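Researcher: Can you fold this with iron/sulfur cluster in place?
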Amino acid sequence: MPHKVSFVRDLEELPLSAEEKERLRPVAEKYPFFCSSYYLRLINFKDPADPLRRVVVPEEGELESWGRVDPSNEANYTVMEGVQHKYDSTVLVLASDRCAALCRYCFRKRLFLRGSERRPERLRNLRELVRYLEGHPEVSNVIFSGGDALMLSTSRIKELLEAVIHIPHIRYIRFGSRLFSYWPERILNDPQLLELFRRYSRPGKRLYVVTHFDHPRELTAEARKACDLLLRAGVHLLNQCPLIRGVNDHPVVLAELFRELAGLGVSPYYVFQCRPTLGNRPYAVPIEEGYTIFEKARGMVSGVAKRVRFVMSHALGKLEIAALTRETVIFKFHRAARNTDTGKVLVYARHPEAYWLDDYSELVEEVPLEGDLPQAM
Ligand code: SF4
């Protein structure tokens, strides 16, 4: 990697008052703080409610006892270290256990905890992954994620790509990365990475990069240029982000994000319900409130920018929060861990304080998809 990222790892280096640093120290001891210098420069430290500050600077409410270490039960779908196979057609690889900053609401913060609580899950055995994929012809796509897949060296990214792209039934490959927000220079200063993507992103074997922009202010000139370089290299770009209290929990902010992304050629793809992960209490927005914010934002943009879905990555599958009625909330399986749940609709009595499917207790109706599912070809 030609240019190294410069990190700040100590709260002492932030322009906070001595009293604030004192208050936040126990939080950072439990959930570490680290952030690229680039991203810190985007923060207005004079504003305690600055949305970008909320993204990376610890907050006392994180110490509230709330959430679980693995709320989507990823352990259940782990087929070898760093490899998850939850949906028939997709294999998810935790290729890296590093990021260029720690989002306070990270749903995989188990990767970043200190001491015995840390679970540094990542792919260890590439050959074993290839054997697994070769033995599973139903898998049409692979996601390299983490952590941040683009924190890997370009030579490691090449090794991963070349190992899986030649498997005949793999039709497309995704890389999940928040570097466009935290460290766009990684893309701007590495022509070899762009050349690698240009070489391999082909009809029938398309490469996708899934960016993670949470707020329009993250779309700096550098970030926009990094996206454009990848688009020109023939890579498709999609954006996913969680809905976070104090960051993007406003329809105007979210609509601006969707609009700007669409203008750049980055398709807004998923907005996630914030997972009930340890320490995430200050960042979570209840499901029904989140749905209303999201729908208002979608109402402000055109069809191109509103293909985005509001989803919850639950252990059972990816559930779209599809609609609210006066009395009920309607979920639809967008992806199902068990094929029998494909397309199923779940209708629950409303519960404005619910943060996760498990908080709903009154199932009003469960409607499976009619008829048998066709066999995968
Ligand atoms: S970029 Fe993703 S994996 Fe990295 S800290 Fe943020 S949420 Fe966690």
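Model: Folded with iron/sulfur cluster in place. The chain has a mean pLDDT of 96.
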